[in-house]
Amino acid sequence: MNLTDYVKQVSIEDFGKPFKHQAQWNTRLRSTGGRFFPKDGHLDFNPKVYQELGLEVFRKIVRHELCHYHLYFEGKGYQHKDLAFKQLLKEVDGLRFVPPLSSANQKPSLVYTCQTCHQIYQRKRKIDTKRYRCGLCRGKLLLLNRPKD
User: Fold this and answer.
1) pLDDT tens digits, one per residue of 54-90
2) Residues flagged as binding site
3) Is 52 a catalytic residue?
4) Which residues form the SprT-like domain (predicted)?
5) 3-92 maps to CATH 3.30.2010.10
6) Active-site residue (options: 13, 52, 56, 65)
7) Binding residues for Zn(2+)
8) What percent helix, strand, coil does the chain show, rounded to 5?
9) What is the C-alpha separation between 143 and 111, in angstroms, rounded?
């Protein structure tokens, strides 16, 4: 699929306005479906969203980015917080957030417990158990599970 041609097609069909810039895949995107760059007007899209969630969800993400694009070039509020953006997104049935991807590189959850009061702590980052203690009773912390690196 030629991404720029697809975005131009969606822009004409759903907005009735032309898309005059470039659209490209960006494999470095992790937590977002796409990005709009006001400086040069191009759009980046996450290829994993298209591969995992399909064309229907991807089209809604394209609509979302085109809302930013068209509002910016019309001189209206194009940010997520702006009323004009929220209204246009609702009109064209765009997605506000990307559904979670199964292939997202999520860090494994680390589980620590206090040896004294048995308080449980879940963390994404390692805790230095020689330096830090339980916040309730000042007891020693013990790592319960070893993550697979």
Assistant:
1) 999 999 999 999 999 999 999 999 999 999 999 999 9
2) 64, 68
3) no
4) 1-144
5) yes
6) 65
7) 64, 68
8) 35, 15, 50
9) 6
